[in-house]
Amino acid sequence: MEIDGGGDRISGERPIIMVTNDDGIDAPGLRSLVRVLVSTNLYDVRVCAPDSEKSAVSHSIIWSRPLTAKRVEIDGATAYAVDGTPADCTGLGLSEALFPSRPDLVLSGINVGSNCGYHIVYSGTVAGAREAFLYDVPSASISYDFDWKRGEMNANDFVLSAQACLPIINGILSAIKNKTHPMQCFLNIDLPTDIANHKGYKLTRQGKSMGKMGWRQVEEKAQGPKMLSTMTMDTESGVVSSDNDTSARSKEDSRLFKREVRGSFNEEGTDSHYLKEGFITVTPLGALSQTDVDCQNYYKEWLPKITNQSCSSSSL
Fold first, then answer.
1. What gap in Å lies between CA 201 and CA 189, rounded to an integer?
2. What residue spans carry the region label Disordered (predicted)?
3. CA-to-CA distance for 73 and 185, rounded, in angstroms?
4. Is 1 exposed, middle or buried (0-12, 13-18, 19+ CB in 10 A)?
5. Phi, psi of 19 (to 5 degrees)
6. Which of 69, 89, 142, 243 has its Cβ near the most Cβ atoms within 10 Å?
7. What are the backbone angles phi and psi of residue 67, rounded to the nearest 5°?
8. How far is the CA of 9 from the CAs of 16, 86, 130, 136, 229, in angstroms?
9. Is 50 strand, coil or helix?
């Protein structure tokens, strides 16, 4: 079997899938995805994921120090836990410094919580796939729309989510083999809460939906709720806080604030809308932050006008 993975060729071997995420290497979503991939016996599975939760870190990377990669035992896979961000993990996994070759496909997830609309900007899960896209390796981010109000996670939901992604994964690998896979985008896949009774697969576009966040001053630090890469949270469990803040704080010159959800916006006809309708949404994404035509046209007239006025004023 010959696979074109953005310039690499692998002949006579199973295609290589590398898995990363932002919930950490021990998260149930990643473990379920790897278990399902391994159980097919169709892929060579690698894992390069953060050693702890890195939700909502977006596409940040670490420059200030070397990264540690520690071997972790996951049945059927070659796995490393890295003290970096999702983008760091993908970059290291692609570099051939950690693994002997590049993967044919990178999967980031399965995230606990959906990643639609503007929430994609914050998502470490999406960034894990985007980093592969930037290096011309086919990729997809995968998120499960977990409902925090119903209580504890059901591991079987992640297994069902992983199984539901297999047709898409196999389709991507087939397109890579046939050299028809488009390299101008990567995929963002969101799975509905009731995954066992999903309504099918829906090609969608990224919308502008997001949860509106506010800030409120609080008196004392408390254990924070679970923050997802979607910037949604378990609002019943307390104050959002960071355990990484070890700086000295005096009561005289410091104030403590917490995030809180103050509403949400859901745009019809887009990824979040169809996800809430019960579909598995498949959304092609790119990495360019392009604005719409109206803004381009406005500034096309605006920029020469204000710069010519400036030149005229300076000549007086």
1. 10
2. 235-255
3. 32
4. exposed
5. -115, 135
6. 89
7. -100, 140
8. 11, 25, 21, 13, 34
9. strand
* Measured distance CA(222)–CA(237) in Å, rounded: 9
Structure-token pair, residue 57: 């870190």
Question: How far, in Å, are 58, 126, 142, 185, 207 from residue 139 at the CA level?
Answer: 16, 10, 10, 9, 20
Tokens describing residue 193: 């809460």
Sign of the alpha-carbon dihedral angle for 108, 25, 145, 121: negative
Residue with tokens 């109000």: 149
Say how far apart CA 98 and CA 192 lie, in whole Å. Answer: 35
Query: Which residues are registered as beta bridge partners of 216?
Result: 258
Contact 226, 148 (CB under 8 A): yes
DSSP letter at 253 equals T
3-state secondary structure 203-225: ECCCCCCEEEEEEEEECCCCCCC
Residue that is written with structure tokens 């932050």 in the block: 289
The strand order across the sheet containing 201-203 reads 69-74, 77-82, 44-50, 16-20, 105-112, 139-144, 186-191, 280-285, 201-203
Please give the model's pTM, rounded to 2 decimal places.
Answer: 0.85
**In degrees, to the nearest 5, what angle opens at C-alpha 9 toward C-alphas 25 and 105?**
30
Torsion sign over Cα 19, 20, 24, 27? negative
